[in-house]
Amino acid sequence: MPKIVDHDKKRQEIALKSTAIFLEYGYKNIGMRQLCDKLEMSKSAVYYYFKTKDELFRAATEAIVNLDEDVLAGRPLATSASTTQQLENFTLIFKQMAPRFFQEMKLVSDYIDVIGIDNIADDPCMQLANQKYLTMLTTYVSAEHCNTLYTTLLGLLNHQIMIGTELDTDYVVAQASRCLQ
């Protein structure tokens, strides 16, 4: 009996597995052959789902952002949430991103080296990530303050890297609270 494959699910699985590979090896230092080896899949199988490394990278970017959003499932939306719930939502996003943020920033720098700094604003992957995080903050924290919250989120994540230790949750909440005033 032929094997029935859910192609959408398989595509998502490949994209999510690829995020870990890109985070470990960067963007410019790995080609499709190495990606296929690390995925333990034949090139033809991967190429069935993704025609280029860029297409796979975009899917991996979307997969990791979607994973971050999954942590908010069942949480109150910004429009009906209390300030305390909005701050809890912000903190959940922060804690979801924090463990891999350093690797992500290395990957972003590596990727920008390839696309060029002048092309960041028009790059589909950069637009996708920025828009998804802004939408997440709009939906779960505050539409009115989403840009300030995004800047604060990235700043707090960088701050945590620079001091070499986890930021206290109360400190994270206090910084996000300033944005909501």
Q: What is the count of DSSP helices, taking H or I runs of 4+ residues?
A: 9
Could you tell me the mean pLDDT? 94
Report the β-strand fraction as a percent range. Answer: under 5%
User: Which blocks of ≥5 consecutive residues have pLDDT under 50?
Assistant: none
Structural class: mainly alpha
Q: Distance between termini?
A: 62 Å
Q: Topology as H/E string?
A: HHHHHHHHH
Dominant shape: globular
Count of strand segments:
0
What gyration radius follows from the Cα positions, in whole Å?
18 Å
Q: Please outline the major beta sheet.
A: none
Q: What share of residues is helical?
A: over 70%
How would you explain this protein's 3D organization?
The structure is a single chain. It contains nine helices and no strands. With 181 residues, the protein is mostly helical. Helix 1 crosses helix 6 and helix 8 packs antiparallel against helix 9.
